[in-house]
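Quick question, first post here. What does this chain look like in 3D?
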Amino acid sequence: MAILTEQQIKRAKQILHECLAAKNEDGSRYWARDEELDRNRQEVITGQLRPLVDQYLAGKVDLKQFKSQIDSINKRNEHWGFKGIKGQMYFNMILNATDDLSECDNEIKAAIALPSSDELARSRIRTFMSYVKRIGDQYAESHGAASRPKINSTPFFLSYFWQIQDAHTWPIYYTNSVEVLGRLNIWEPTDDVAESYIQFKQIHEELLEAFSKDHKHPFDLYGVEHVFWFEGQKPDAEPG
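> Answer (accepted):
Ran it through. Tokens below.
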């Protein structure tokens, strides 16, 4: 069942057209910069991130090494915004909060492994949120609530690793994308964080199809993300 109305898709296409027509200050195409970013992302994924994730899931890299190497790669290649509070800082807080590193390792492996369906992705988000809440509650008792990992960061954290493994299926749950969808009166998340991510994914699927037909060229998830980023950078953006 479709989530978006024809009017909402039309509104999104208007932003697409603006993005494709936009120019940088030097007169070059705005979109060319995004195409270069995508090439760089794929190089980093193929050469560094995907092998590291595979090695970690296979037990060839331990959890602390994995966290440290993910941090190092993202500091050298700032293509995803993973260094922030919902990415690396969330990862750090989880390890700080746990008193059972083996359990934490098992929970993270189970959560970041590539889901085979929306249902499994929804379940993994909920399961990992439950784990993070439990260790966060225990940690807050002795260290204060400010030090606990925030469970609402879970969809961004997990979808980052899912997209590394399958960039054609799993969009990253960027705050900018969520805010743009709300500002354009297209979609708002609910208190059900896991269900909201699945709806977010399904909206991307609908826009992929609509953008590809409109542009007469296949779009990917990166492309939809770039359209949202373009709109999100407008200082005077108003709902359509």
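The chain is about 70% helix and 0% strand.
Residues 144 and 181 are 34 Å apart (CA to CA).
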